[in-house]
Design goal:
single chain, alpha+beta, DUF4192, DUF4192 domain-containing protein
């Protein structure tokens, strides 16, 4: 069974483990119960819930374990309790989680308590607390690459403001001419070629091709071309061209899309190449960062789908939420958000 893309957690102490949690959940937790899930000593995700009231610990623990059980391959958990006021409740919460995990044959690696940026083990007779270690400087980049980012600060790279201005002007040029689908394709042919990602995204310090970036942003905001780009990212340049011809035939003559293409979008095809998905995600992340606000939903929606295709429901849901915040009617983002909320992954995530 294929595991979701994960990031190796080099946490050799409770202090180092706790230093990673704000990046995993998207913000510094406060008055929270955090459960970190692991597969073979590697973190998969982190779940945040409110601290349960007295007497509710078993119910909350059971529900949290149910959520974690939906993630394939989880074999260990860590509990981290953040509180400034309820230290006495730490032990009942820890006991409840350990009891439920034992029933499910899931190991609990750590039960930790964080108070005022110091951490100690719950139930430690010595009551020793140490300062939380600083997080690795490159952690956010690692999280995005491995499908675990879930906050805006993590999800988008820093971009040059002058480049934003140039891209916005190029997008306005396209919009002013109201180019239809076929004209857009012929005018910006490289949008659908394998080299467009190299053209649209800066590499090795080379300047961005502003025209290609603007055309790609425009394409990602047109469902027909967006799906072509996603199919190409998940398969090959050749299938991208097949998808383009099929989309043009559908738009002009109502010819149904071939099933072998639609199955890629629905996650029912063969498992995509992970490197292609990651490169596509890197591209649309940059395009989302450089695009004007009104043009961001297309790249955000594409990033949501690519994250979902990589097996990261949490990151997919975060990108989808950003798209829906700007455009509540964005169909692809709404679909991916529903998948994320229901913990549904592509079929290829479960393939041998």
């Amino acid at each position: 069974m294929t595991q979701p893309e994960v990031i190796t957690v080099n946490a050799n102490s409770p202090s180092q483990l706790v230093s990673l949690i704000p990046a995993l959940v998207g913000h510094p937790p406060h008055e929270s119960m955090i459960i970190v899930a692991f597969q073979r000593r590697r973190s998969v995700t982190a779940l945040r819930v409110d601290i349960p009231s007295a007497g509710e610990e078993p119910t909350v623990a059971r529900e949290a374990l149910r959520v974690m059980a939906d993630i394939p391959g989880v074999d260990a958990l860590a509990l981290v309790l953040y509180t400034d006021k309820k230290e006495a409740q730490a032990q009942p919460i820890s006991d409840a989680l350990v009891a439920v995990a034992t029933e499910s044959s899931i190991q609990i690696n750590e039960t930790l308590l964080v108070i005022n940026n110091t951490v100690g083990r719950i139930g430690d007779p010595a009551g020793k607390f140490v300062p939380v270690a600083p997080a690795p400087e490159d952690l956010f980049d690692q999280l995005v690459a491995d499908g675990q980012a879930n906050s805006t600060a993590q999800l988008l790279p820093d971009v040059d403001n002058d480049e934003k201005i140039r891209v916005a002007a190029a997008i306005d040029y396209i919009a002013e001419r109201e180019l239809d689908l076929r004209v857009l394709v012929s005018r910006f042919e490289k949008v659908l070629q394998g080299t467009v990602l190299e053209d649209a995204v800066p590499r090795n310090g080379k300047p961005t091709n502003t025209r290609a970036a603007a055309a790609m942003i425009k394409a990602l905001n047109l469902p027909a071309l967006r799906d072509v780009a996603l199919i190409q990212c998940a398969s090959s340049e050749a299938l991208g061209w097949h998808a383009l011809r099929a989309q043009l035939a559908f738009n002009e003559h109502g010819t149904p899309m071939p099933e072998y293409l639609t199955q890629i979008i629905t996650g029912e095809a063969r498992r995509p190449d992970a490197a292609r998905l990651k490169h596509g995600l890197n591209a649309v992340r940059y395009l989302a960062a450089v695009a004007p606000e009104s043009s961001k939903p297309g790249p955000f929606g594409a990033a949501a789908w690519l994250s979902w295709a990589m097996g990261s429901n949490a990151q997919a849901g975060a990108y989808a939420a950003l798209a829906l915040e700007i455009n509540p009617g964005h169909a692809l983002a709404a679909t991916v958000k529903a998948f994320s909320d229901s913990a549904r992954l592509p079929q290829w995530s479960h393939a041998d």
